[in-house]
User: What shape does this take?
Amino acid sequence: QVQLVESGGGLVQAGGSLRLSCAASGGTFTRYTMGWFRQAPGKERECVAAITWGRESLYYRTSVKGRFTISRDSARNTVYLQMNSLKPEDTAVYYCAGVAFGTIGTMTSLRKDFGSWGQGTQVTVSS
Assistant: This one.
């Protein structure tokens, strides 16, 4: 299993931007479909973006389409989430996760006890 470490969270005003990074180690990164998830207090964890291991497919949650961009750099074993035009409702703990040879469907239905998960990074958007 690949190990994942997120970074880049913080406090930002509404309309601002943040870029989250998720560094992978201990596995063959290029075999992993990667996703970004978020969980706000009192809410279910949800998948906001995903990119397949072959980069042939991308997924974005409707609420973030046009504002968030997921990308991956195989040379750095890192997946990114560029978040623009942030809104207070984007406030949550953001997690990255990976599943070997997963599909978009795998990521959108991923359980917490399946795949590899990072420890999370807090994103707070003030109004």
